[in-house]
Amino acid sequence: MIRAALMGFGLLVIGFLLAPMAVVLPLSVSAGSFLTYPLPGLSLRWYADFFTSEFWLPALWNSLVVGGASAAVATLLGTPAAFGLWRGGFPGRRIAMAVILAPAVVPAIVVAVALLLAFGPIGLAGSFAGLVIAHAMLGVPFVVITVLASLSRFDPALLRAASSCGAGPWLAFRRVTLPRIAPGVAAGAVFAFATSLDETVVVLFLAGPGQRTLPRQMFSGLNDQISLTIMAAATVMVVLSVLLLAAVAWLRRDR
């Protein structure tokens, strides 16, 4: 009885979370021009407008480029940071952990203002480099968390065995540790990419006209002129999110 109640509650929560998508997806194929139900008909013209637009496609491309670059930087920084936190018993370890995870906890508006004040004087505001660095900073906590989860299942005796065989720290990490935690590293990279793909507030503060990402373009579209092309863009975001979730599920299964 309790199990059935929990399952029913879980289904209600899932339905609540999926309800916005149930509204967005049909509107993206509406033949009308307004956000209204019932649909006057079905049409793919909003997708045609999205994939032929000089505004939407560059925004999608910018999101993918910034997301991929920031995920790579976050992975390169977060993986050794997680390994150091796992191996090190140094004083202040908890403080270091709190500092690394702070971008995931501090409100986005606070992070955005701080980055604008820091990047402005050195010319990084309004540039792709500044946007990649900012998004990488937001993605590092997710990489650290997933890599630490993988390292919690790693046997440190393997490193001692590698050291006794003559392997140095870097060689032992590359040949012994990294292959075993690779699924966690990859999952962290996927989460970092998803964080960048979804970020809007930081982009509003840091990005210039040439760095419009898809979420920023959607935000601007809602402010300037409501078009159902936004629904097509939202559907593209949903599809990308589903692909990312499928990638994470596959990586977890592989572990």
Question: What does it look like?
Answer:
- The protein is mainly alpha-helical.
- It has a single domain, classed as Orthogonal Bundle (MetI-like fold), CATH 1.10.3720.
- Helix content is 77%, strand content 0%.
- It has eleven helices and no strands.
- Helix 1 packs across helix 11, helix 3 packs antiparallel against helix 8 and helix 4 crosses helix 6.
- The longest helix is centred in the first third of the chain and has 32 residues.
- It starts with a helix and ends with a helix.
- The model has no long low-confidence stretch (mean pLDDT 81).
Q: What's the CATH first level?
A: Mainly Alpha
SSE run: HHHHHHHHHHH
Radius of gyration: 22 Å
Reported CATH architecture: Orthogonal Bundle
| CATH topology (fold) name | MetI-like fold
Got a strand count?
A: 0
Quick structural gist:
The protein is mainly alpha-helical and 255 residues long.
What descriptive keywords fit this protein?
single chain, 255 residues, MetI-like fold, globular
Question: Strands, helices and their partners?
Answer:
Elements: H1 2-27, H2 45-52, H3 56-87, H4 93-105, H5 108-119, H6 128-151, H7 157-164, H8 169-198, H9 201-206, H10 214-224, H11 229-254
Helix pairs in contact: 1-11, 2-11, 3-6, 3-8, 3-10, 4-6, 6-8, 7-8, 8-11
